[in-house]
Design a protein that fits this description.
membrane; 2 helices; mainly alpha; Twin transmembrane helix small protein; transmembrane helix
Length: about 70
């Protein structure tokens, strides 16, 4: 999990960067920006579900620090 999460974050940032690049250079003539943003959404949802599954399996634990302190 210590390796998977940073790699997923790097892929999400790379997808956002590619969407920005396509937005600036394609000027709305292609769907590459839309696909890059859809990929980012898919990666973000996948990362969230993987973190929930890892917590459910006991691979990661909460910090046990009370809220409000």
């Amino acid at each position: 999990m210590h390796i998977l999460v940073p790699i997923a974050f790097a892929l999400i940032i790379a997808s956002m960067a590619s969407a920005l690049y396509f937005m600036m250079h394609d000027k709305g003539k292609s769907q590459r920006m839309v696909w890059s943003l859809a990929t980012r959404v898919g990666l973000s949802i996948s990362l969230f579900l993987i973190i929930l599954f890892a917590h459910w399996m006991g691979w990661i634990q909460t910090s046990q620090v009370p809220l409000g302190r």
